Amino acid sequence: MTAGNTHVPQHIAIIMDGNGRWAKQRHQPRFMGHRAGLKAVENIVKQCVERNVTVLSLFAFSSENWRRPSKEVSLLMELFALALKQQVKRLNENNIQLRIIGDITKFNSSLQKQITQATELTKDNTGLIINIAANYGGRWDITQAVQQIAVKVKSDQIVASDITEALINSHLSTADLPEPDLYIRTGGEQRVSNFLLWQLAYTEFYFTDTLWPDFDGQALDQAIDSFNHRERRFGRTSEQLQEKE
Ligand code: IPE
Ligand code: IPE
Ligand code: MG
User: Fold this and answer.
1) Taking CA 150 as the corner, what is the angle to CA 130 and CA 192, rounded to the nearest 5 degrees?
2) Ligand 2 site, CB within 6 A
3) Helices 109-122 and 70-93: crossing angle, nearest 10°?
4) Which bound ligand lies closest to the C-alpha atom of 134?
């Protein structure tokens, strides 16, 4: 997909990091950073729609984030519930499809119900797909895929030699989505923190010191611009790619 001379990545995945530090800089409680982070999410969704991005994957809560103080965890859950309550109708009106990936069985039943209703309501929408990772871990994703496959082998639906990369891929929570083209992490850390492991084999990484609540359309354009200066070789040589053009 192109906008002017810019090639827009089809699938953008973002680790939205730095909310706590954003609040700390302002001598506010961490929660204020998460609230500001939610505003940034709303804006980035709009920016992605304008740029014709196909899939936006957002890391909202990792399987390791339960280790945080229980007060922060419960405030994050409340914020998630509030965001769904306030935003789902508008997302639906804008033809946006909302998906949640992760082990949602660990959430309280009312949040689980909200998630199911939101995904059900928007499942046939054909615009931007927002993929929210909540209680998600890349290792969890691979593990649950392996469990599903093991059940199929055990019940003779498939044999061990049927287990291919494509079969594993089809059991991941992102099965029908294209692999991420661009992976953005805000907040200055340069690590994956267990977000989408299998899916990242050939994704381009972009790290920025900008804290998530400050990440806006201009910052997104900088990331896309950086992406546009990469040569994605997928194992081939640069010369081979030039021959193909
Ligand atoms: C990311 O911001 C949001 C979540 C993990 C929910 P942080 O809360 O990790 O912010 P920092 O890294 O402490 O600044
Ligand atoms: C990753 O951020 C998780 C989310 C943004 C939801 P963290 O702040 O939890 O990552 P670490 O602990 O610094 O690796
Ligand atoms: Mg952090």
Assistant:
1) 40
2) 15-17, 59-62, 65, 189, 191, 193
3) 20
4) 2
Q: Tokens 């661009």 sit at which residue?
A: 182
Fold of 11-138+177-244: Undecaprenyl pyrophosphate synthetase (3.40.1180)
Q: Residue 18: is it exposed, middle or buried by C-beta count within 10 angstroms (0-12/13-18/19+)?
A: buried
- E strand map for the chain: 2-3, 6-7, 11-15, 55-62, 97-101, 129-136, 182-185, 204-207
Q: How far is the CA of 40 from the centre of ligand 2 (A)?
A: 17
pTM > 0.90: yes
Inter-helix orientation angle 30-50/217-228, to 10°: 60
Q: Which two tokens stand for residue 155?
A: 């019940």
The two three-digit tokens of residue 110, written as one number? 């009312």
pLDDT in tens, 190-226: 999 999 999 999 999 999 999 999 999 999 999 999 9
Domain boundaries, the chain: 11-138+177-244
Residues in contact with ligand 1 (CB, 6 Å cut-off): 16-21, 61, 65, 76, 187
C-beta separation of 132 from 60 below 8 A: yes
